[in-house]
Amino acid sequence: MLELTQELKDSPPSSKLVYIALKDKGELTQNELTDETRLSKRTVRDALQRLESRGLVEEDIYIRDARQNLYLIPESDRNTCEPDRAGSGDATRSESH
C-alpha cells in the first residue's frame, strides 16, 4: 500500500491522483497524465506544479518530443513506498505510446 508523506497528505485530491498515476505508471507526459487521470489539462498542470514545488515530482526532457516534458517520481521516493514495484515504470513506459 502507498504510504503518503505529510506533503502529499496536505495536497488537494487532484495532486494525489496525479502522484498515484505517476507512482503506478512510472514516467508520463502531461498529456498522458490527462488521459490517465481524466482531469483537465489545467488541473493536471496545477497538480504537477504543486507536486514539483514540494519535491514529490521531477520534470525531465521527453526525448521523443522535445515540446513535451516527462514527469516522474524521484528515485528515492520510488523505492521507499513500494519496494516490490521499484523499476516497473521502465517496462510500462516502453509498452505505452
From TrEMBL:
Region Disordered, residue ranges: 74-97
Composition bias, Basic and acidic residues: 75-97
Family matches, as SUPFAM superfamilies: Winged helix' DNA-binding domain
Pfam families per the UniProt record, alphabetical: HTH_24
Protein name: Helix-turn-helix transcriptional regulator
